């Protein structure tokens, strides 16, 4: 099934590129101009994980790093956000389900402490080439929980700039793209850019430049949705665009933050992360804190169908 889906997606991209050439229209989510003009270049898939494998198995070590503990070695405590869980590599928290999905499941132990999971790609070189486009996408079912039972849940699909790995003290200047964030089981997806300096700066840290909307059709919690981000360097003003199920709901361009800040956040590689935090300082200017209570119900997973990265001019790996 996953092989058929991959072939279908590649056929669709080729068809869209052909249609664009015939009609002289450029569709931003499927094509990119190499130099801001001329013929559009199709996006090529450079990374994909469909999470195929036996039930209970971990994500493939060749593609993913499993973060554990309460911080990076020598990095900010509680992952820099005040979240209260401990990340583990236990299959109780992180596992393939045998049906082509990855599950990340928060658990509460007998003493009331929380565990969960967080992974990040081995690769840190996902980038939009000069004059091109990068698209990062995942199909995700957020934890299916709402109301008082959802208090404290903070699922996320996001990126960090490559220079963060091994440093851990250069945020937010290296850029953070929050492609999908949610908190407390609210029917909304948030897309946020973090950049510049903190507090304040061009990205209004620690809030970031964000927007949100309800998920189309089914609620965010009750079904799978496709969450995507495009970094477009093909036009006269470079920009980031956020999508849910193909519908754009947020954008930030280089003019909004300044050329130097933009280069620092966009003109280099990023790595991709997936996690479910419990508690923590979800930006106050966006949605308030995520705070578990005695009513919070453990054991509700975030389910990830696939993650893909596409780039104009890239080669599949």
Automatic annotation (TrEMBL):
Stored Gene3D superfamilies:
2.60.120.200
Which residues are in the GH16 domain? 34-315
Tree of life domain: Bacteria
Which keywords fit this entry according to its UniProt record? Answer: Signal
SUPFAM superfamilies named in the record: Concanavalin A-like lectins/glucanases
The record's listing under InterPro entries reads: Beta-glucanase-like (IPR000757), ConA-like_dom_sf (IPR013320), Glycosyl_Hydrlase_16 (IPR050546), TAT_signal (IPR006311)
What name does this protein carry? GH16 domain-containing protein
Originating species: Streptomyces synnematoformans
